[in-house]
């Protein structure tokens, strides 16, 4: 960003690279030419925690250890963790078909997702495949179908570099190594008619992404308006808890190279990642709007409100057209009061109490409240399960009971609004206590699917209830719904979540299949040398959305905020609602994710 005017009031920063915490001395073995760690499961381990420890995707661990697919892991179990989890299941015969060798536990659906093709196209070219695949079975994947379905969003080769094929490498592993779609590599090498051969030199296309979100507007407008009060340059303040003085090791980062996570003060990581997303958005805006449109002021809030007081008395703060942050509640409240006094729009980019909106029309929250999320979740369940048997578990604690009541009310209101006479009935509510398991068994249906919503934030309650339900899948078709923090519970094995098709409502979730997500990811990797996480995506989307509105309408863009919404953002969509005549705006868009084949599938509401 050499041409963009950025006033860095703090001199720091570098990309943060991944850091797998693999214990020294972990035994390794070689099986069929492939090297594995042998890990003995310890008390308290879950597949999720092990995948994080070895920096290996859950689906890879499960594929390499098929005996754990349908049952929880136990202390003493020995798991094989691939030292280098490259895919070795595919090889290529010609430009017409990709030949895929089926692994233990793979399904048609999982293979279809791997190759970005429909399951029907695989079945049409493999009439003998059947519903259950067998290990070592060969499947033909039609390349033409891949081209047809994704040609509109495929990156465009702009240049080529060469790669010497090593033993065991596949087209899939090379596509991951170079961040280039497999089909683009095929095109650059005339379809690889003889397949990949060790020692052969092939071309790897260097790509420019077509129709990238990084260069496109993110919002849809309901009506058109006349902009007033526009400026040549807008001042934007970014206030984040970098904890610069606790990051003395970051001096080595001035070289611009990524540094290991171990060198970063833990509470700084969110701020650094969000900041990288902000920089990426500014790069995009500079390409479209010019180098002088935005002037960014960056401040370190730390966690002490005294730091905020020192920031707010700086003369440049009164010149701001927009403030993003701070993240901590007390710091944000203090900054929001300043913003109200000087009539400056201010954005909270993280989950924060709705009290910050009351009486302050300049505040905007990008993360929906729990009330909004549960309401959207209830509407989703109506749309997806209204013909089925819906049950609400009502725990005894007040917070969970209130969430159960909110879900039930929202469900009934939405169902009544739809006037759908085909719906089975309103949800059944079970007040949880002693003997409730037998009550639940009576409420379940063997003829219909059963959706059980469990609105608890208690890890202990959720764990005990999931264990109690563990045998139900043998007699009933059961899906369960929970809250966002369930995805962080490390003492519930992922096999349970997958078995019960766990549905969760969230403020946002990175959709790796979204074509816009691919564009942003490629730009991010090129700029910072690492992959973007949820906070980076949030930083990018938040900055792009609000700076576009600022450019279009000036400082008074909030008057038009309700008329703009996004529909295809990779992380979270924006649809703002003013919470009161003299209050601020809350994002009312939520995300539903659910487990299928050990993967999280995303749907927006």
Walkthrough of the structure:
The chain has 605 residues and is an alpha/beta fold. The chain has 4 domains: 25-82, Membrane-bound Lytic Murein Transglycosylase D, Chain A, CATH 3.10.350.10; 90-202, LysM domain (Membrane-bound Lytic Murein Transglycosylase D, Chain A); 220-367 and 532-584, Rossmann fold (3-Layer(aba) Sandwich); 371-506, Rossmann fold. Helices cover 31% and strands 20% of the residues. It is built from 17 helices and 27 strands. The strands form 7 sheets. Strands 1-14-12-15-16-17-25-24 form an 8-stranded mixed beta sheet, sandwiched between helices. Strand 20, helix 14 (459-469) and strand 21 form a beta-alpha-beta unit. Helix 8 runs parallel beside helix 17, helix 9 (305-312) packs parallel to helix 10 (329-341) and helix 11 (370-385) crosses helix 12 (398-418). The longest helix is centred in the middle third of the chain and has 21 residues, at 269-289. The two termini are 35 Å apart. Residues 1-25, 85-94, 147-158, 208-218, 221-226 and 248-262 have low confidence and may be disordered.
């Amino acid at each position: 960003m050499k041409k963009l005017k950025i006033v860095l009031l703090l001199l720091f920063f570098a990309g943060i690279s991944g850091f797998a915490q693999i214990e020294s001395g972990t035994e390794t073995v070689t099986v069929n030419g492939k090297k594995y760690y042998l890990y003995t499961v310890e008390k308290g381990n879950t597949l999720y925690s092990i995948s994080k420890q070895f920096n290996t995707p859950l689906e890879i661990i499960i594929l390499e250890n098929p005996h754990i697919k349908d049952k929880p892991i136990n202390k003493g179990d020995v798991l094989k963790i691939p030292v280098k989890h490259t895919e070795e299941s595919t090889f290529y015969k010609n430009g017409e078909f990709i030949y895929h060798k089926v692994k233990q536990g793979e399904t048609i659906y999982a293979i279809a997702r791997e190759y970005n093709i429909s399951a029907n196209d695989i079945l049409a070219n493999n009439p003998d495949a059947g519903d259950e695949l067998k290990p070592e079975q060969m499947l033909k994947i039609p390349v033409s179908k891949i081209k047809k379905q994704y040609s509109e969003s495929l990156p465009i080769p702009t240049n080529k570099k060469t790669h010497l094929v090593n033993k065991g490498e596949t087209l899939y592993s090379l596509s991951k190594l170079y961040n280039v779609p497999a089909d683009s590599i095929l095109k650059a090498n005339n379809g690889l008619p003889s397949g990949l051969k060790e020692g052969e030199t092939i071309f790897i296309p260097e790509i420019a992404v077509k129709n990238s979100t990084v260069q496109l507007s993110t919002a849809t407008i309901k009506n058109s308006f006349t902009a007033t009060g526009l400026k040549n340059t807008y001042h934007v303040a970014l206030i984040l808890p970098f904890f610069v003085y606790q990051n003395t090791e970051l001096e080595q980062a001035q070289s611009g190279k990524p540094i290991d996570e171990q060198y970063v003060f833990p509470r700084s990581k969110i701020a650094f990642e969000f900041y990288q997303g902000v920089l990426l958005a500014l790069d995009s805006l500079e390409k479209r709007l010019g180098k002088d449109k935005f002037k960014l002021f960056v401040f370190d809030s730390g966690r002490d409100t005294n730091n905020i007081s020192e920031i707010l008395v700086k003369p440049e703060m009164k010149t701001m057209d927009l403030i993003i942050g701070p993240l901590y509640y007390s710091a944000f409240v203090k900054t929001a009061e300043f913003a109200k006094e000087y009539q400056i729009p201010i954005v909270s980019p993280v989950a924060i109490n709705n009290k910050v909106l009351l009486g302050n029309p300049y505040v905007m929250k990008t993360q929906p409240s729990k009330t909004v999320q549960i309401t959207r979740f209830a509407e989703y369940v109506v749309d997806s399960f209204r013909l089925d048997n819906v049950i609400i578990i009502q725990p005894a604690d007040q917070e969970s009971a209130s969430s159960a009541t909110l879900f039930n009310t929202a469900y009934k209101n939405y169902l009544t609004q739809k006037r759908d006479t085909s719906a089975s009935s309103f949800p059944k509510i079970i007040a949880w206590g002693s003997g409730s398991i037998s009550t639940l068994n009576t409420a379940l249906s063997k003829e219909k699917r059963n959706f059980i919503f469990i609105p608890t934030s208690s890890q202990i309650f959720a764990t005990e209830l999931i264990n109690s339900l563990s045998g139900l899948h043998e007699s009933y078709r059961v899906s369960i719904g929970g809250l966002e923090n369930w995805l962080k519970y490390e003492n519930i094995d992922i096999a349970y979540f997958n078995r019960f098709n766990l549905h969760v409502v969230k403020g946002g979730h990175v959709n790796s299949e979204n074509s816009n997500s691919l564009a942003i990811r490629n730009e991010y990797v090129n700029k910072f040398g690492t992959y973007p996480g949820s906070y980076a995506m949030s930083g990018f989307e938040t900055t792009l959305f609000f700076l576009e509105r600022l450019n279009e309408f000036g400082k008074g863009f909030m008057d038009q905020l309700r008329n703009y919404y996004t529909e295809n953002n990779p992380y979270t969509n924006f649809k703002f609602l003013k919470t009161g005549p003299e209050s601020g705006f809350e994002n009312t868009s939520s995300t539903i994710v659910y487990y299928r084949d050990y993967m999280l599938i995303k749907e927006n509401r």
